[in-house]
Amino acid sequence: MRGAAVAGAGAAFYPLIGSSPAAAATSGDYTIRFDQSRRQTIKGLGFEIQSDSIGSGNNGLPDEVSGVPYDLTDSERTRFYSEMLKAGRSDRGFRYCRLAMGLYYRGLDSTQKHMRGRYPGQTALIADMIKQAGIEGVSAEYWSPAPGWKSDNSYIGGSLKQFDATFLDQFGDALVGDLDYLSGLGVPISMWGLQNEPRFSTPYSSCVYTADQYLATFKAVAPKIRAKYPNVMITADSLDGWGGAIGQAITDDPQALSYVDAWTYHRIGYDSNYQMDHDFNVGASGKTVFNNEFEYLDNQTSDWRTVNTAQSIMNWMVFQDAPTWFWLHALKPTTNAESPGYSLGFWRPPSDTDFSRFPDLPAGHWTWNPQNWNSVAGFVKYMPWDSVRYLVDESTRLADQRIMAWKTPAGKPVFAITNRSATDSFTYTVDTQTAASFEGHRYGPSTNNQSLGFKTGPTLSLTVPPLSVEFWVRNP
To answer: For the purposes of burial, counting CB atoms within 10 Å of the CB of 22, is it exposed (0-12), middle (13-18) or buried (19 or more)?
Structure first.
């Protein structure tokens, strides 16, 4: 949940900006190469679930039992699954749920070395959410191992107690055991990560690794994960991917590298230009790269950020061939200071009696955070799992006006276009290379799935107003 300062080896922090250049372009020509130039398969998007409590401002681990789906009424759970996690689709929406092991899933067995649900029904509720929302599985990633393995016997801070072969062998067995426990209770595992942001010690759950310590631990644990769960995607670093000291240590070790399926990054709240200007694949050793956490760390959002977030999704996929992208939290509580910048929506815990915030939101109910949700919603709705991206020729590559095209698994062409300018409309002239008609849908800071009617190809002239994202879907 903390931001990283580097993108790849030697890269510097890229500032987040909030306005467009004064002499911005107002039009451009584009050709979608649906006839050729098939690119990567886009698996689908991910989100994180706050299934237990955290202190406001990410400060501490309260004893209070509070989280989602736990706090929601039965009807609000159903609405959460249908309207957000499926984005109103009849089948499925988000593909992955990031499960923060040791943070939002932090109960323990009697040995203090194996994780369990912290309150009755926690694991069953997560399993039911996954089933009802049609999610493939969780990305099980540790914010901290169980305290029995830690130097300080606590979820917060510290490191592993030891790094000798015997200790790490036992530790690996325990982490496999955590996955066995989850999967045995109906929580399928899609991805696994050793440690979230392994360089940082934080006032919430964390565990610090040096590059050598991470390498030794990964080499002991990853083979056990692969042996028991051969279809699980093993990710590495969860901060700087291959570009930091940890990633370089793994890259230099052929055995360790052989177990890496994907390098994960935290380019949290970055201007989406960053993915246009940097190459995340150059040192990836042929492995997949993607961003598995995105939010805004100043606890705020804005109209400009609505489009910036949408462009982050697009630019990771267009310029870095990422197969997925993760927003941080689906829902955050009304009580926490960080919630506006971190969430797609808010829920009111039963303990929150301050109705000066969200006065019309009853306890156990949730509502939208539209400036964040509307940036993500169209991709969840109109880019089904395993869509395939296609190349687009651009007359000029512009930072504030982005385009991405794909075909759904059923072969239906779709493209998304943006206008991040806060002041000027932008006209796209798009050669779709098909005489079919396309139906438009617009999203923006306060706009969700606005119908734009139909346009008939092959060439479409589309004027996008300021701070808008549009999806054009072939009809039928």
So the answer is: exposed
Strand pairing category for 137-142 and 189-193? parallel
For the chain, give percent helix, strand, coil, nearest 5: 25, 25, 50
C-alpha 101 chain-centroid distance? 16
Q: Is the pLDDT of residue 1 over 80?
A: no
Kindly give, in sequence order, each residue whose CB lies less than 8 Å from that of residue 308, ignoring residues fewer than 6 positions away. 16, 271, 272, 375, 420
Instruction: Express each pLDDT in 48-103 by its tens digit.
Output: 999 999 999 999 999 999 999 999 999 999 999 999 999 999 999 999 999 999 99
Instruction: Of 238, 146, 159, give the one whose Cα is nearest residue 201.
Output: 159
Give the chain's radius of gyration (CA, Å): 22
Determine the Cα–Cα distance for residues 195 and 221; give it in Å rounded to an integer. 12
- What DSSP element (H or E) covers 235? strand 233-239
Share the mean pLDDT of the chain.
Answer: 95
Contact 301, 369 (CB under 8 A): yes
Give the CA distances from residue 147 to residues 105, 109, 171, 244, in Å, rounded to whole numbers and listed in that order: 13, 11, 12, 27
Tell me 454's DSSP state: E
Q: Counting runs of H as helices and runs of E as strands, what totals does the chain give?
A: 10, 23
pTM score, whole prediction: 0.96
Contact 134, 91 (CB under 8 A): yes
Give the helix ranges, DSSP H, for 188-296: 211-228, 245-251, 254-257, 273-277
Beta bridge partners of 227: none
Q: Which of 375, 373, 245, 362 has its CA nearest to residue 306?
A: 375
The whole-angstrom separation of Cα 279 and Cα 288 is 13
Burial class for 270, CB neighbours closer than 10 Å (0-12, 13-18, 19+): buried
For residue 82, the number of C-alpha atoms closer than 13 Å in the C-beta half-sphere is 7
Which residue in the block uniquely carries the two structure tokens 């479409």? Answer: 460
Of 464, 404, 377, 400, whose CA–CA distance to 428 is shortest?
A: 464
Phi, psi of 100, rounded to the nearest 5 degrees: -80, 95
Q: Quick one: which H or E segment has residue 307?
A: helix 303-320
Determine contact, residues 313/267, Cβ cutoff 8 Å. Answer: no
